[in-house]
Amino acid sequence: MTPRFSRIAFSLAVGVTMLTCATTASHAVDSYSIDAAHSFVIFRINHLGISAAYGRFDAFSGTFKLDGGTPSALTFELDAESVDSGNADRDKHLKSPDFFNAKQFPVIQFTSREIKAHGDHFEVSGDLTMLGVTKPLSFMVKHTGEGKDPWGNFRTGWHGEFTVKRSDFGMSYMLEGLGDEVTLLVSIEGIKK
After folding, report:
1. How many separate domains does the chain show?
2. Domain CATH number, residue 93
3. What integer is the mean pLDDT of 35-47?
4. What is the pTM of this model?
């Protein structure tokens, strides 16, 4: 290799390395833990074709990543035993094998595979596992705000709403009375790690 060619190759290698470092530095990936105390997972289902019944999960956890402010990964777990509809007898039934079968399947889990931008919304695609059954799920999320809290932590918020068919996961009890589709509203607040 001639000295002139060596100098050109070295200069090119240095230039590529600097460009790679600059790109990496400007697109840092930040990790967040979901703050369950300030996040909510609420579900809504039809009741006898007359009204809507609501409930929530009181215990859940998860993490997500932002790549230059754009979501790049999301995972969360719901504790099936924490289902809360505001009525102890109904909650006991919801935890039974007729619905969530919480003793045998204590965790409901979602893991993203891909996230795509659509204007100011993002389409999250991944896998939802419930009652031992895993199905693909896609839904839209929107950024709701960000900033430092009074204790110096950086927080960011996201909101999504989507519908799942419970029969897809084997939950077929009383489909005629309650309907098959369940709407979930998820509002999460994450704390930067």
Report:
1. 1
2. 2.40.128.110
3. 97
4. 0.83
